[in-house]
Structure formats: structure tokens, C-alpha cells
Amino acid sequence: MNPIAAYFRSSIGRKQLMGLSGIYLYIFLLIHLVGNIGLLMGPEHFNQYGYLLTHTLREIIIPIEFSLLAAFLLHLGLGFKLAAENRAARPERYAVKASKARSGAYRGWMMLTGSWLLLFVIVHMPHFRFGAYRVAPIANYDGLEMNDLYAEALRSFANPWFTGFYLLSFALLFTHLAHGVQSSLQSLGVNHPRYNTGFRRFSWAYAVVICGGFAALAVWAHFQGKI
Questions:
Q1: b vs e for 25-39, b when ≥16 Cβ sit within 10 Å of the residue's Cβ?
Q2: DSSP states of 93-136
Q3: What is the residue range of 41's domain?
Q4: Per-residue pLDDT tens over the stretch 149-163
Q5: How far is C-alpha 87 from the chain's CA centre?
Q6: 211: which residues sit within 8 A by CB, 6+ positions away?
Q7: pTM (2 decimals)?
Q8: CATH code at 180?
């Protein structure tokens, strides 16, 4: 068998691919959060930032977007596959130890949060990336017209249901990241009893920064949109 095909079919190979795809997505979340902080700098800064990504750097950004989508689908698909394999390999489900039962329950929770995040992406991408549901006007800076993403963000988050959906999604993302960052590192062999506590704390701290940052921006935009 081709060694590359054998690697992809092996349990270790799939876990490592899941870890790599997870880390790629975690890095993207940090970059995305930094970009979204531009909301606090006002409409011109944020709109020009959006124009930079969707027009000026279009030839670079579009391949990156496809790679992120591929990584997300790969990560989610491998997660479901590995969870199914774990269940199939443990037929004595009702006789497992409590620690294993908790581990299985947590994997099930990770699959649930991953499924919700897929729904979030399905809602988020058409809206802010492709302009679905958008009613905000076009902004004009020095004769250059662009989508007024700032106005659209404030208009959307002024809706309490919209903001609630996002806050729930960030809460579920928190539970996913708090375990997922450390798990991804362990899948790549970054696992040592001496440092695992530190990795676990880093995982939680990263989840707090990412989800707390996005949630804070959503709440800020909610109240700004009501002014």
C-alpha cells in the first residue's frame, strides 16, 4: 500500500491531521479577532480593512479562505469518524470505567459543539463575507466605494436574537477550544507529564481570549447599534 495512503487511513495519521487542521483554525481565529477589533476604531478603518481583504488582497485571500473551509470540514469530518471508531471499538459501553465514560461523554460534547459551529459558519459566511441579508448602504472614502461593513455589523447586532445566537456560539466555541487546543497539541506529540498542566492552562487561556474577545465585540456592537 502507498505509504501516504496508509498514513491517511491509520488512526494516528487521522488524529495528527485533525490536530494540524485544528491548529490552523485556531491561528485563524486569533487573526480574525485582531481584524474585528477594528470595529472599535470606527467605520472608515473597519470598512477599508474589509475592502483590503476582499478586493486589494483578493488573489491571496480567496485561496486562504478555501484552505480554511477545507481545514474546517476535514477537522469536523475526522472528529465524527474518530468518535464513531471509538464507539465501535468499545462494545462493552455499559461496563466501562467512570473515567472512560466521562471521556466518551466529552467527545460527544465536542461533536455537538462542532456541529453547532458548522451551523454558525453557514449563517456567518453568507452574511458578512458574501453580503446576504445586507441592507447597509455603500460607504465612500475619497471617491472609493465599498460595502459599509461597519454599519451592517451594528445594524445586525442591534437585534437581540442575532446577538444571542452569536453569544451562544462563542460560549460553545469556548468549551471546544478549552479542550481542543491541548488535544490538538497532544495529537502532534506535544505531550509530557511535566508540561501537560501548562498546556491545559494555555488551552483555557486561549479560549478565554478568543471567545471573550468576540463576545465583548458582539455586546459592544449590540449597544452601539441601539444608539
A1: bbebbeeebeebebb
A2: GGGS-HHHHHHHHHHHHHHHHHHHHHHHHHHHIIIIIT-TT--P
A3: 14-224
A4: 999 999 999 999 999
A5: 26
A6: 170, 171, 173, 174, 177
A7: 0.85
A8: 1.20.1300
